[in-house]
UniProtKB/TrEMBL annotation:
Residues 25-62, 282-303 are annotated as: Disordered. Residues 1-26 form the signal peptide. It comes from the Bacteria. Keywords: Signal. This is GerMN domain-containing protein. SMART domains: Germane (SM00909). Residues 94-186 form the GerMN domain. InterPro entries: GerMN, Gmad2_Ig-like_dom. Pfam families: Germane, Gmad2.
């Protein structure tokens, strides 16, 4: 569930007394993904990723064992961007993740697949520094009707980030069809398509836990990845009338050059049982004068 958060003006405006914890290994979403395994080693909060080739592979564990990262499209306030969900798939993980990205139903209703209907994948192979995804037919070789060039590029990046995450590799991706084409929605992939810079295609804050629709206890751990001013990730809990009933902030392991893991404890023990929205957002040092904060939301139930 997505609501539009009020601009975050200063950290002083946020309530204090929040218990902040950051895991040295990024306790939230990375054992299985380039933004879920965004770093094989956790950098300090002031450090930058040590290897640009695997920068977007985060250091946090998926919310579910055996889950793989899947990248969907959502609205960011600055145009469409990619958001990540961890999903369980059957069969070969990379192929299952690709199929989930293309035709699966996101758990979060704010997300959508970047792919039109009508196509599919038959295999994903990895070797010799290249990830090869084979289409099941020719449906996605050319750009679909109504799909812009930007939409096509974002769909390609959705596939690239998803299969790289499932394979825990930043090797480039090529797409082939049974007819021998190497284009995906008209985008040439013969030489291998690298993952685009995270700051250009990913939403700058993403919640891994709690998941959409989760029932949470009185105190729960929230986590995700973000690139936010001075590594500050403000959060809010809102009730059904959109009133803020709790707020605080987390500190990510880094910022500026990539999305870094963040984690914090959220106390909702004083709230009445019911449905609420947990929102994580990027900090706005301009006090509302610059671009609006990016945010991600999850509907939660307080028991």
């Amino acid at each position: 569930m997505r609501t539009t958060p009020r601009p975050v003006r200063t950290l002083a405006a946020l309530a204090v007394g929040v218990l902040l914890t950051t895991s040295a290994c990024g306790g939230d979403d990375a054992a299985t993904d380039p933004v879920a395994a965004d770093r094989s080693e956790s950098p300090a909060a002031t450090s930058s990723p040590s290897d640009p080739a695997v920068t977007d592979v985060p250091t946090q564990e998926p919310a579910q064992a055996g889950a793989v990262p899947v990248y969907y499209v959502g609205e960011s306030g600055s145009g469409p961007r990619l958001f990540r969900e961890f999903r369980k798939v059957s069969g070969e993980p990379a192929l299952g993740a690709a199929e989930m990205a293309a035709s699966g139903e996101p758990a979060d209703p704010d997300y959508r697949s970047a792919f039109p209907g009508g196509g599919g994948f038959s295999s994903v192979e990895h070797g010799d520094g290249l990830i090869t995804v084979t289409l099941s037919d020719e449906a996605w070789v050319e750009r679909a009707a109504g799909m812009s060039g930007a939409d096509a590029e974002l769909a390609v990046q959705s596939l690239v980030y998803t299969v790289q995450g499932a394979l825990q590799s930043r090797d480039p991706v090529t797409v082939t069809s049974p007819g021998g084409s190497t284009t995906l929605f008209g985008v040439e992939t013969a030489d291998g398509v690298a993952n685009a810079d995270q700051l250009d295609v990913l939403n700058l804050v993403n919640i891994t836990s709690p998941e959409q629709g989760a029932e949470v206890p009185g105190t729960f751990t929230a986590s995700g990845v973000a690139s936010s001013f001075e590594a500050t990730v403000p959060w809010e809990v809102r009730d059904s009338s959109d009133a803020v009933v709790a707020r605080g902030f987390a500190t990510a392991e880094g910022w500026m050059d990539a999305l870094y893991p963040w984690q914090t404890e959220v106390d909702v023990s004083d709230l009445a049982p019911g449905t609420y929205t947990f929102i994580a957002m990027t900090d706005d040092p301009s006090g509302g004068e610059g671009n609006p904060p990016m945010f991600d939301t999850k509907e939660i139930t307080v028991g």
